[in-house]
Prior knowledge:
This protein is mainly alpha-helical. The protein folds into two domains: about 1-30; about 30-75. It has two helices and no strands. The chain is rod-shaped. The chain starts with a helix and ends with a helix.
Amino acid sequence: xxxxxxxxxxxxxxxxxxxxxxxxxxxxxxxxxxxxxxxxxxxxxxxxxxxxxxxxxxxxxxxxxxxxxxxxxxx
Length: 75
């Protein structure tokens, strides 16, 4: 049973070590939990940027409309 347990342990550890070796050889950072936090932050910032850009465009359109109406009214 101990031998079987060692075999199972090796089956788990060998692929994990191979992954670590591959990451090191290819300069890949495994951020683990921090990676998912960073990814979520990036998604949040991207969403906020899109919302801010949409808001700016709406306000620019309103500004241009008000200016156009002011020009027509002054004629």
